[in-house]
Amino acid sequence: MILTYTLLVCLSIFIFSPFVLIMIKSIGKDWFGKLWLPPTLTLDWYKWAINVARLPEVMKNTIIVTELAVAMSTIVGIFSGWAFGRRHLPGKELLMSMILLPRMIPPITYALGIARIFYGLNLVNTHFGIALAHVTLCAPYAILVMSATFEGLDERMLEAASVCGANPLRTFFHVTLPQIMPGILSSMIFTFTTSYNEFTLTLMTYGADTLTLPIRTYLAVGEGYWEVTSAMSVIMVLPSLLILFLIQRQVKPEQLVGGFKGL
Amino acid sequence: MKKLFTILFVLAVVAASAFAAPKEIVFMDSQSGANFQQWWQTIALPAAEDFLGVKIKYVVGSDAEIIERMKAWKAGQGDITVLFPKSTALFIKTSQVQLENLTTAKVPNMAKIDPVLQTSTEGVPVANKGAAYWFSTYALIYDSNYVKNPPKSWQEFYDRRAEWKGHIGFIRPDAKSSGGWRQPFAFLNAFTDFSKKFDPNAADFQAAWARLKDFYTYCQLPLAAEPTNAFENFNAGDTWITVYAMDYSLWSARQGTMPPTTKAMFLDPGIDAGGQAYLVVPANIPEENKQIAYKLINYLLSDDQQSRLVSTMWQYNSTMINDKVPGIVWEQIPKIEVAKKAAIPPERVNADAIAYIKKNAVNIIPK
Amino acid sequence: MRHLRSQRREWLTTLLLLLPGFAVFLGLFVYPFIITIVLSLRPEGQTTGWTLEYYTSFLASEHGRQVIVLTFFLAIATTLFSVLLSVPLALVLRRKLRGHRFFRAVPLIPLVVPGLIGALGLLLVFGSRGWFNLFIRDVLPFIHGPIAVNYTISGLTLFYVWLYFPYTLLTTLSTLEGLDPGIEEAAQVSGANPWKVLRHVVLPLIMPGILSGSVLTFMNAFGAFSIPLVAGGNYRPLSVDVYKQIQLFVPAHWSQACAIAVIMGVLQVVFLTFYMRVLRGRKVK
Fold this sequence. Notes:
The complex is a heterotrimer. Chain A is an all-alpha fold. Chain A is built from 13 helices and 2 strands; from the N terminus they run αββαααααααααααα. Chain A has a single domain, classed as MetI-like fold, CATH 1.10.3720.10. Chain A has helices at residues 2-27, 44-51, 55-86, 92-99, 101-104, 107-121, 127-151, 155-163, 168-197, 200-205, 213-223, 226-247, 253-257; strands at residues 28-29, 40-41. In chain B, 41% of the residues lie in helices and 14% in strands. In chain B, strands 6, 7, 8, 9, 10 and 11 form a 6-stranded mixed beta sheet that branches. In chain B, helix 2 crosses helix 10 (287-300) and helix 6 packs across helix 14. Chain C is mainly alpha-helical. Chain C has 2 domains: 1-40; 54-284, MetI-like (MetI-like fold, Orthogonal Bundle). Chain C has helices spanning 2-40, 53-60, 62-93, 100-105, 109-112, 115-126, 131-139, 153-177, 181-189, 194-222, 226-231, 238-247, 254-284. Chain C is flat. Chains A and C meet through helix 1, helix 3, helix 4, helix 5 and helix 6 of A and helix 1, helix 3, helix 4, helix 5 and helix 6 of C.
């Protein structure tokens, strides 16, 4: 029994310690030599991140890109989910596995192609361009979630609505939409975290005017300023952890893993 | 009539507001590290904004990206007013981008720049395509906590190497940072004559190369991949003595990101000078912006600004105003004359030797 | 007649609904991939002419082979250690001890944080003055420290495991929990001790789950980018090598980068096919 708990506690320490250290590093000063904790605490590094690394601007870029990506992915998800979930489609399984291909193939392999295309279309260094690149990774998730949602749609309610005389539009807004809303929300959460944390594709399509948080944090690593890098990392990782904390009861862990049905 | 007056009035207001709105120009920077990003954004550019009455937008970029951007500009529509490149030589060499000629007629304070700095950069003639803003120098950086009596020359450093075995912080010669080749170059320069034509098989070079190989075994192993790793070792107290850019190290010590006991000094016969950084003005921008650019550069080269540069950032000023710098600065860092004397002279900056080091030094580092 | 017409309309609507999805898939994935392949076959910086030199020079060179071996090594080692870690963990977590909700949420964390941040934190923890080495210095003084973890191959594998073991763990756990408890009970009733039950009954039954999870871990480890970029030091797997071709050279070596990227993509597709086979095999069971 003790062995079991030791194992679990060691695992937790293994998982949590990186974050704890990042947090401490972001508020520590004069931490030289081999000490467990920094002798002085300070907010200087956060101030630096805000004033010199211009975090507010970076956050603004990140949010704009993420919103665009989430919006586009959700729309794609709804349309495709409807088709997969409710319409007769031969070879549906094959199509579904194909849709997930961009997530299974390492993005770096096709990021080069995306970069070249975007250079030609002048989409590099634009918020829309980066969001579009993110859609490649976000749309599969959205489609997956929405297909499952649409499949679970209660046919009888729709029939009842049409029997009562509602036209298709009304049916959609008053009957369908409320039913699929949880799915839309779930899809939006997944696409949000995917886009917010996205690094590889952004690295190939960003420019001086469209720095996002992951990119700025990476650049800070290159500058060697570990304290400021830690401050930016803390700000970057908080939303993901928050969302995890909020949804960890609702979501089935297997969905996070890759969403293959029948797993 | 009333209608005409209204239209004229509206037009006048619009025109007035267009003039009244502060002009904004873009200052693009691909040269500055963390320390100078702070300098530009919190000290130099705000002061310039007040002085010139224009808004200056500070943007960080990279050379490759900036060149692509400039190539795509339509005639006279460039959106970068002043550029501070990492490698001015690259911009001068690239034929598809044009830089404005900066003369004393346009920027009077350029007359104060040390002429040596305006001759060439990285082997490419400057030809007034840029105005030198600072010159940066490497120095022996050491933690006075552990190193009470630092060496004064490379020979002494080599002779006393056992004293600091395992605590010398050299970086890998194949690092992205130029420090990778500058460190071994400065070392070799002390033991061989680089003003002669480079011959890797000459006896004296072979002897120096063997010394370098031996010296690497006394460094902290494995060799740090990049300067940031070397600094991490320095902060951990594992590395006590290294060779790196003086301005960054001393500034970091003051910021609290390197130990407060960090000190800098020069080694005989020379430490490789880090090089100059230039302010350049692209040629393909609106004429109005060019005028503002000249005024901005002139301001940055003014006595007051240059004095601030060296006293705040420990980076040597490009203009010859050292009598105007407060004396206390020279208690922290060696005087400019000492720094210039410590710089390896241009005739010894042997391009062939550097190429040889870049290619082969990886082979003599300890596995 | 009307039946046919409405059937055609059905098809049209379905097609229209699928249009955005297809547009994204084709325009943002297939087309870029094609561009990557085309670029890899062109001489650097030119728009005409074909050449295989970037493939041959990479595959024939010492450097290229080292990179491929390194990538494989990291992926295999990560998968192995993930399995070794996940199976005991799954067995433990299934028992629903006190606080198991919390312990179940813990492995989810590496899934939702970007690899970059995980790598940075791990570099801090395992550095020469990180808590790992301080722990050894203060609590386990008989171990001669400091132990170099960062920028070593074993350290890098450790970082990979941190990020990718949850895939194996979660699938193993879900398979384990999907087992019919009756089977284990039956085995125990017939007199087998718990270890025997584990080895001969449980493990074979959950093997498909372990397998599919470990293939996921393998594929992710093979394609890992941000971790080796930041924490790899001198170890550059395929993904980082691709990026370095673009970043380190001016003008960038697009063709060489694309060639390496295609090699990587092809290898990954091979694994993917294998993975689908495994999945389908499970379904048949």
